Amino acid sequence: MVDTLRGIIRNRQYGTQVQDFSGLRFGNITPTDLDGLIEYKNRGYVLIETKYRDSKLPDGQRLALERLCDDLQRIKPTLLIIAWHETDGDIDVAETSVAEYRFKRKWRVRKGTTKELITAFLGNLDG
Asked: pTM score > 0.70 for this model?
């Protein structure tokens, strides 16, 4: 039976809670977040970070996600996507625009949606 509720927002009231990481400061390092993670059939990983319009990924977050992607790549194929959205409401991540992505230790640019890029990546994993 297909779970039609997978991926939908279930507890909207908790989605508005802001996490305060200020007590977890180590020198000039504080935690960062990641907007999405897919572990696909024990074959690979997809990491997703969304930003509003042309917002730049902060240097510290960029470095942390880049290193995470590269470290995971040593184990399994790993794709890191930085995507833009232009909404003040719920973000349909599948339809966000790919700003750039990282694969095999290189940053790359590709036009299209996050869903299109992930579909192509997973298709290669399925061979």
From this structure: yes
